[in-house]
Here is the input.
Amino acid sequence: MRRLQSLQLAIPSQCVAAPRPSFAAARAISTTSPARSKNTDWIRGKLWKGEAPGPADPYTQRMEPEAQTNLPEEALESSSSRSRRDKTPAAVRESRLALPGRRTEVATEKELQASDPTYVPAADAEGLEEIGPLSTWWEQPGHWGEESEFKGFGSAVKVMEKEVLEVYLRRAVVEALALQQKGVFAEWATKKWSEGGSRAEMDQALAAQVEVQDGKATLKGDASAIAEALTSEVEEVESTPVITVEEAREMTKSWDSSWKNVALDNPLRFALRKRLYQLTGVLIPDAKLAAANTAKHILTLAARDPKPLKLAQVLEKRNAFGDLANVKVHERRVGPIDKEVAVGRWKVIEEELKKRDLPVTGYGDAPRNKERDWLTGKI
Amino acid sequence: MTVKALRAIADGKNGLGAFVLQCKKLDLHYCDWAGSSKGMNGFIKSLLPKFAAANPQIEFAVSPRPGKHPVIVGHYINGRTKPICVRNLSPYEILQKVELLRDASGEKLRRTNKAVLSTKPSVRGIWSPYHGKGMAV
Here is the structure.
């Protein structure tokens, strides 16, 4: 009884708090006839002892009460009209990619025949446009081309050699100084500098002399031309010129090393790091960059030690076992197949496996060894 | 070709005719990355060329085994193998192990408590002049 009481208490209060619109109006389709609901009125009356709360037919669709908002009417209107029109996210709507069309439904044969008495259903697929499935959408021409490929800011080809890095760093320093001299550094520090793909631009920048006194650098050269080349917005297709290590070594030898003592303030540090990333693809981590006070430090942070040689490579380089016939050095791990190859048995095994339709390497479709998992406690 | 013992009807008495080294092959496995292979890598670089030149009758196969401890495996003409793990050993310690493998017979290690080990032990034992009643000549 207590439960029933609480139910009685709860249900009318809900109905009072959120008055619903007429359910009969909200019903799109109903499978219950009105006569049937009339038949149940008497029992509802008995149950509730008077006016019964809730709908007469509880199996109809319920319309949710409209959410209360404090937005002005114009905003409400615009938002509702947009949502009715198109619910796709803004990023998808504004994308320049050709996206697959929305799903549309065609009228059924019966409906068409009702509206158009001359309609004759097709008997074959002649003349129908052939479109691929959705899974091959991006492979279809015009949907994903070279223009859609990601082009990063940094150079795709990473420079690893220290000498070459030094050449590029010198170029970055000269360019930053040139912009400073022209007084446009503050404006251009955060913008994208021209990639400088041509060799002429690079030689122009490297020809300028950098004189450093007590960390203060002055540029002697055609600063305006260098700055002009950087700030011009020319569509470039050339990639960054490739310098050989020998070339770079000669270049670095010809410069006085004092240019590397140029003191860096925060904007210059940031500009050098950005330019170096653009030219060489080497990005100095933020945490390390703060410690760089001179261009020399930047070079130290950017340059990485070359990968140590593998033992097999070292042995080959030294020619350690050159004249010894009884020593064989393998570069890779010697696996079971290598052992069979060494005794000339592998081709026989391979042939026999193929003859029996067995996988030559691996286990094919066979499931993994479950017993091993049982033993090791994985299952 | 590796050295193989001839299948003789009579047992070969090694050392009576010609001496055939029982170790025919040594596999030397190392890892380029792991620290436990440091000594092994040093041994291969510095000591192995000399050792291999001094032992031309043994075949040496040097191969990496990434992510594993360094191992030397000796193969013997009796068909047995003898593997020794040389992790964290210095090059000279490894040299001792390699010499041990070279000099090993390939047989299982057995305790010897007799002065003479014979393949056909005498039923009567070794003759001694101090035992028995003596012999009239």
